[in-house]
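User:
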Amino acid sequence: MSNNNNSYQPIFILPEDTKRTTGREAQRNNIAAAKAVAQTVRTTLGPKGMDKMMVDAAGEVIVTNDGVTILEEMQIEHPAAKMVVEIAKTQENVVGDGTTTAVVIAGELLKKAEDLLDQEIHPTVLAKGYRLAEVQAQQILKRLAEKVSLEHDSILKNIAITAMTGKGAETNKDFLAELILQAVKHVAVNGKFGLNDVKVETIVGESVEKSELVQGLVLDKEKVHASMPQQKENAKVALLDASLEIKNTEIDAKIQITDPMQLNMFLDQEEKTLKNMVETIAATGATVVFCQKGIDDLAQHFLAKKGIFAVRRVKKSDMEKLSRATGGKIVSNWKELNIGDLGTAGLVREEKISDEEMIFVEKCSNAKTVTLLVRGGTSHVVEEIKRAVTDALGDIAAALRDGAVVPGAGATEMALAKELRKYAGTLRGREQLAVQAFAEAMEVIPRTLAENAGLDPIDVLTQLRAAHDNGQVRAGVNVFTGGVMDAWVEGVIEPLKVKTLALSSAAEVAEMILRIDDVIMGKKQEMLSRGNPGMEM
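Assistant: Predicted structure:
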């Protein structure tokens, strides 16, 4: 029997069922998946963007054009696609807006990179070029930015209007922007404000114009006892992070009762303890009690007899907001409560609004927390308006934090593309091609704005390039007329932070995906169709 020395036994180093793609195929699959994510949200960009309807397993419906909401609801599985979804989440957490922009730019950067990979340019060269371009882009953005502060009412209002345009709140954007501006002015400290200082609460069953700003807090709660007063004027508010109940012991304790009298004494003692709790609270002069934990039925009865308005199981975040609204201190032990810990509110009342009880803590003289009460005809409408209002608040917070804004409508991206092309001309190596690709990728934003408005993107881009070549740095797409406009004059303004963060996170993820040349999938995660990974969603 002849021994064939050329035949080798294959060596398996990975478990069975492990799927592995390497080299160019791995890159192709990852880029296809990332592009598919960008394609999904791309049609939602801009004033003429369309909405998506998502229906989950339980039949819950969400109608939105908010990028991060769409991507989170889609429950994307592909690992490279998940990396792109992370960009949207970061953008949402840090700024609160610009999620679609960030994802679309990442998709376009990878699309341009794919063309260069086909021309045999090495991924690390591409990654280096993208890094150079991103650093340069950040410097260009700083030069383009204008200063903004709390005194610039019209600019801040335009930031809010720009954020809400193209979303469910669009028809009432001027009215809502005015409310948002009032809210921000009320809670701002040293020219800045935190998003936690403005609570957005929704109510179904009224038109959007009935939305209002409450100088204080609105809680989706009800008073604990029916015989408590419906409202309290000039309320003294006690905030307790303690339960008004008899504590159970940590260890299993047995109490042996041999006589009915002992049982009565035991119950009387419990009652006495609860009565003592209420007496102590009432003695401070408190007329309203917000409790983070439970209130015993008997304690509820005693509170009602004293005419004290009480609410239980209030969320920790709401307790903190109540503290900022009323000026009260959160006390962890009812025994320690004293008159100096109480907050004040002009009016605390319970109101039934479309089948739900709500508690209004309003007319707080020095409220550092306010509530935007957003109303809408149906739950789907009101939830989408809430998302739009939250985006607008995030944009104003980001603009005030950095003190800088840039023109929107694709003007900033066109200016970036023009400057980056110039910069590419100063480079000598193959990185020049990557910087050129980065510059072209910037134009995806104005192009998408035009496409979503049903305009010819080539015509629009040609006009925009001509305008920018003539030194019109603020020239953007007018999606309503199809022409070019001065974005600043038209009031299309965005915070600088939206652009800087979108660019840096999109560039970083694109670089990371480009550097992957081997994908090893464990047994648990089964890929659906290897032929077209872009659609694995």
